[in-house]
């Protein structure tokens, strides 16, 4: 076990990409195996010391930022323990601190497909499971949850729990299980989750699997020490395309049609995002006002997939002569770098301004996507705020990012963010589709599920962590 007491070192664990300020901790403990995780929690629990679990710190909601107590960093739980080939795909077991870039390389070596592929490749396996992360390809493949076959966890009292999907199921909304010498039996929340991509609060549905309670729990119910993923085979080939549009409305229209063609991903970038991209990549077409990035599987041949998309790309508003296509890994890597540049550049701009970026992570039902988009655009146009809209248009899940230049603009951005959240809820959407609630969105969770919904979640929290030591301030405001 490594212990860090040096304030300069501790400082590096007090931030993530939310820009949330004021974090502090007494020390950072870095266990090297699950037994050490267990001994940290046993001691902290007996002394009622709060423990904040840290992954790579790429989270967008302040989840790994401690406000007192100690930090348990998973960075030395960094082994890929096993890869098994099965009929149609296989399984990979990785410890919590494995960066997803390494997991992806392991999958590539074994011809497995790391389907959901969140954008930020330095994120850790544990962080992606704890937030139920998703990525561009979640349009076809769904989020992290769908691929978690099992996990090893350490509960707040230090007991170790091994879970395999299918072994422990709730009866209706009541769940019962044993971890080492203790038995647990408690009610699960009664709310109905939005029928969209969702990472807001605890997963709850009738007869659910216990594994699903620990996916998306944001470090409030246990330390995920390792996880096993069931993944499909890598597709024979991929077709990736950046299509540029003369106006934004044509790009939204294209996305609607593209959805029906069933690609792997459909991603949107507004005119302001293209402005950012041009800073580094001057070959972004001059007349482009919006872009859609999409990927599809090459099932038969390159020509068939080109034929399939050719007709759609001939639609009104597409700058066909300026369409970028990638058919090999190198060109695709280049595209993904461009795709990644936009959120990275925005985070950097926010850091430099010293004011937090105010962003949304809302998803609405597909039949409400146009209404939500127009609501964003109307409000942003009238606000005079610097803003960038991009994201997973295929899943009706866009990120609106406002970069306030001064405290007045910050207040204005927060008000607008709240309006967007309320609109999403009114349309049947969620308040967080992939980043989680962390410490910055606890108020939004209450708007989504009401006081009673949050109380129901707290029943689960109290049953598993009676001294409330884990992830203090995450999901539940303190
Ligand atoms: C440029 C950029 C792009 C991004 N793109 C995406 C994207 O496409 N999709 C997406 O979903 N997210 C995205 N994110 C957000 C972020 O990468 C994800 O939320 C990621 O899953 C966080 O992983 P992490 O290891 O950095 O976790 P951290 O930030 O360290 O922690 C996140 C939360 O998980 C908890 N946690 C971490 N490890 C464990 C564990 N082992 N056990 C229990 N709890 C744990 C923490 O306590 C905290 O509450 C992006 C972020 C950036 C900066």
Can you offer a commentary on this structure?
This protein folds into two domains: 1-234 and 444-478, Uridine Diphospho-n-acetylenolpyruvylglucosamine Reductase, domain 3 (2-Layer Sandwich), CATH 3.30.465; 238-359 and 362-426, FAD-linked oxidases, C-terminal domain (Vanillyl-alcohol Oxidase, Chain A, domain 3). Helix content is 34%, strand content 21%. The chain contains 13 helices and 19 strands. β9 (174-179) and β10 form a beta hairpin. The radius of gyration is 22 Å and the shape is globular. The two termini are 30 Å apart. The model has no long low-confidence stretch (mean pLDDT 95). The site of flavin-adenine dinucleotide has 40 residues, from β3, α4, β11 and α10.
Query: Considering DSSP H and I runs of 4 or more, what fraction of the residues is helical?
Result: 25-40%
Contiguous runs where pLDDT drops below 50 for at least 5 residues: none
Known CATH architecture of the largest domain: 2-Layer Sandwich
Shape: globular
Query: What separation lies between the terminal Cα atoms?
Result: 30 Å
Which hetero ligands occur in this complex?
flavin-adenine dinucleotide
Approximate strand percentage: 15-25%
Report the C-alpha radius of gyration, rounded. 22 Å
Average pLDDT rating: 95
The DSSP helix count reads 13
Q: Helix/strand/pairing class, anyone? A: alpha+beta
Name the CATH class of the largest domain.
Answer: Alpha Beta
Give the tally of β-strands: 19
Count structural domains. Answer: 2
Per CATH, what is the topology of the largest domain? Uridine Diphospho-n-acetylenolpyruvylglucosamine Reductase, domain 3
User: Sheet bearing the most strands, described?
Assistant: 8 strands, antiparallel
């Amino acid at each position: 076990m490594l212990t860090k007491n040096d304030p300069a070192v501790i400082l590096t664990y007090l931030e993530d990409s939310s820009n949330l300020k004021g974090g502090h901790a007494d020390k950072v403990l870095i266990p090297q195996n699950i037994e050490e995780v267990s001994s940290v929690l046993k001691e902290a629990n007996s002394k009622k010391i709060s423990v904040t679990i840290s992954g790579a710190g790429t989270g967008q909601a302040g989840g790994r930022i401690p406000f007192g107590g100690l930090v348990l960093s998973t960075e030395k739980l960094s082994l890929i323990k096993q890869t098994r080939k099965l009929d149609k795909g296989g399984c990979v077991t990785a410890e919590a601190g494995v960066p997803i870039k390494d997991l992806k390389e392991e999958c590539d070596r074994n011809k497995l497909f790391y389907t959901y592929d969140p954008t930020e490749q330095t994120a850790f396996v544990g962080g992606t499971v704890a937030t139920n992360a998703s990525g561009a390809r979640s349009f076809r493949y769904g989020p992290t949850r769908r691929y978690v076959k099992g996990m090893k966890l350490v509960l707040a009292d230090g007991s170790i729990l091994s879970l395999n999907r299918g072994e422990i199921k709730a009866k209706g909304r009541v769940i019962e299980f044993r971890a080492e010498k203790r038995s647990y039996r408690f009610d699960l929340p009664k709310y109905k989750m939005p029928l969209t991509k969702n990472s807001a609060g605890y997963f709850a549905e009738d007869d659910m699997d216990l594994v699903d309670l620990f996916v998306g729990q944001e470090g409030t119910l246990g330390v995920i020490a390792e996880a096993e993923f069931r993944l499909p085979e890598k597709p024979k080939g991929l077709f990736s395309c950046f299509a540029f549009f003369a106006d934004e409305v044509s790009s939204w229209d294209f996305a609607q049609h593209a959805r029906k063609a069933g690609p792997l991903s459909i991603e949107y970038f507004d005119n302001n995002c293209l402005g950012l991209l041009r800073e580094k990549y001057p070959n972004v077409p001059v007349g482009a006002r919006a872009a859609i990035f999409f990927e599809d599987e090459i099932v038969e041949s390159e020509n068939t997939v080109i034929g399939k998309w050719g007709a759609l790309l001939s639609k009104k508003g597409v700058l066909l002569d300026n369409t970028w296509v990638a058919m090999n890994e190198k060109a695709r890597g280049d595209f993904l770098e461009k795709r990644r540049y936009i959120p990275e550049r925005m985070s950097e701009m926010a850091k430099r301004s010293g004011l937090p970026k105010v962003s949304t992570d809302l998803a609405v039902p597909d039949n409400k996507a146009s209404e939500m988009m127009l609501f964003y655009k109307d409000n942003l146009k009238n606000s005079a705020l610097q803003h960038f809209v991009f994201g997973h248009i295929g899943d009706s899940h866009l990120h609106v990012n406002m970069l306030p230049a001064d405290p007045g603009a910050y207040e204005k951005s927060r008000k607008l963010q709240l309006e967007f959240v309320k609109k999403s809820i009114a349309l049947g959407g969620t308040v967080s589709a992939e980043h989680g609630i962390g410490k910055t969105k606890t108020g939004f969770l209450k708007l989504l599920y009401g006081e009673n919904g949050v109380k129901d979640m707290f029943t689960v929290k109290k049953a598993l962590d009676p001294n409330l030591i884990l992830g203090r301030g995450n999901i539940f405001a303190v």
